[in-house]
Amino acid sequence: MATPASPATVPSRRTFVVATLALAALLGVAPLLGIYPIFVMKALCFALFACAFNLLIGFGGLLSFGHAMFLGTAGYVTAYAAKEWGWPPEAAILIGTAASTALGVVTGALAIRRQGIYFAMITLALAQMLFFFYLQAPFTHGEDGIQQVPRGKLFGFIDLSNTLVMYYTVAVIFLAAFVLIYRIVHSPFGQVLKAIRENEPRAISLGYDADRYKLLAFVLSAGLSGLAGSVKAIVFQLASLTDVHWTMSGEVVLMVLLGGMGTIFGPVVGAFVIVAIESYLTAGIVIGAWRFGPEWAIVITGLIFVVCVLAFRRGIVGELGAWWVRRKG
Amino acid sequence: MTEIFGIPTQALFGQLLIGLINGAFYAMLSLGLAVIFGLLNIINFTHGAQYMMGAFLAWFLLERAGIGYWWALLIAPVVVGVTGIVIERTMLARLYKLDHLYGLLLTFGLALIIQGVFTNAYGSSGQPYRLPQEFTGAYNLGFMFLPKYRAWVIVLSLIVCLSTWFVIERTKLGAYLRAATENPALVQAFGINVPRMITLTYGFGVGLAGLAGVMAAPIYQVSPQMGANLIIVVFAVVVIGGMGSILGAILTGFGLGVVEGLTKVFYPEASNTVIFVIMVIVLLVKPAGLFGRER
After folding, report:
1. Chain B residue numbers touching A310 (CB-CB < 8 A)
2. ipTM rounded to 2 decimals
3. Do A299 and B120 touch (CB under 8 A)?
4. What's the pLDDT tens digit per position in B44-55?
5. Fewer CB atoms inside 10 A, N or C side of chain B?
6. What are the distances in angstroms from CA B275 to CA B85, B97, B223, B249, B264?
7. How far is A145 from chain B (nearest CA, A)?
């Protein structure tokens, strides 16, 4: 997918280091500023999910419409391992991530057999198939989901049942994965991926096996989405059907589109904005005589989609980057 | 009671009939998607919402205005088609020069808006649509009872599908359409108004979804979610059939409906997923789809 991203959307190494350190500092002091840690943890899980998705769409040009299957699968496996087998959180997160990675290998190999619009439809259909599987499989407890997942003790001595400890653990996992994604994008592999996005036949004629690169990007994206799902299951002590439903696949597309496809920080911004809107909606937003509750979330999601596609295709971070370049002349 | 493979024939034929009915809707919806995709290069994610709109319009006409099934069969598709034309003119037309995936994202957003507004207005539980008087009762075929309305749905959808095929493959208008699918610039150079053709094609494809919605109203509950899950199955149908061929879309639609019906008899647990499994197999064996060309 040819994103209308300008060169400014990929920051220089110095900008990236400074901005990431600033982000880390902000995350470090956020609980002290009275920002609700549960909110930030939720936003961070979705930010990681969105960054993983962006790896595929923003740098590989592949629009998956079924990414919820990786988030949800990892969530179920982690929750099951932690609750039914009594595994410690680090092992449960690891096996959840591994499960999504394996799922990514299988679904990716199928989906990259077709391109463009078909790729999107195939990933959506595969995710729907898994949704029905999880709906019927006994171990997921259907509509109830796997509840009361124990958070446990990380490495045997870090007690995650303390919310602040959980918070800093999530922040560290997020930052590590975020830096890893930056490294992937800026590695030779990331460059080849971008070449394939821009002109696949030319990349093939240069001797790159496009399908292998696309599959690897898909698997990496699936695995990192899985990591987000696993952490989310531990944080909220719940794995449910919501995370495998197609609306979740749409939501992650929205976060990346709103924040800026193909930008490093865009998905993080997009995720925080969407999670913030949702939590405000839970309380109800009052505009004049109108009150908008959570039942309006789907309409607002749709509206943001339409506005982004029609008028705001570079997203928040993309537009800011373009404005910065224009200003510098 | 007679049995085939240990299954009572009544149950077998009953499920086959349900399969054919579902297949009729798969065929009509995937046909509309294929026609739109051919000319606009857009996968119309709003299709399911427009199908739902058709059903709701029929329900609305009957409950609020006392206008019956036959008029609804005419009015609802036209109204849905006109809203489609407005969408195409005001929004989709701005995206043709961009990557096709933006069309998918836009129509996805529109689907969410429409579905959300209807859910807020009518709740997520379904509304029953009273069967028209002339369709109550059933034909006794000897081996099974065939409800009159279900027979009508199969016949009407076959008529609609085959006339669409006829118009596209055998008339001058259809020839323009096919030519514009291959090379719009050249067709425009011959003095044919291609942008208007694109607009009308979208209106027509969407109108088909609206018509399918009216036909579905007496069978399924009229609910805001009725299109959402259906459209994902129809996407799988489209991947299986490939969008290159009109007849292919019709055949695939009916065929998969029947396969799904049979699965309900022999292995009910898989009836939700069988179409997706078939999609996986087709992707492995013939990635371009049963009737598709690589493009």
Report:
1. 91, 94-95, 106
2. 0.89
3. yes
4. 999 999 999 999
5. N
6. 32, 34, 23, 14, 12
7. 19
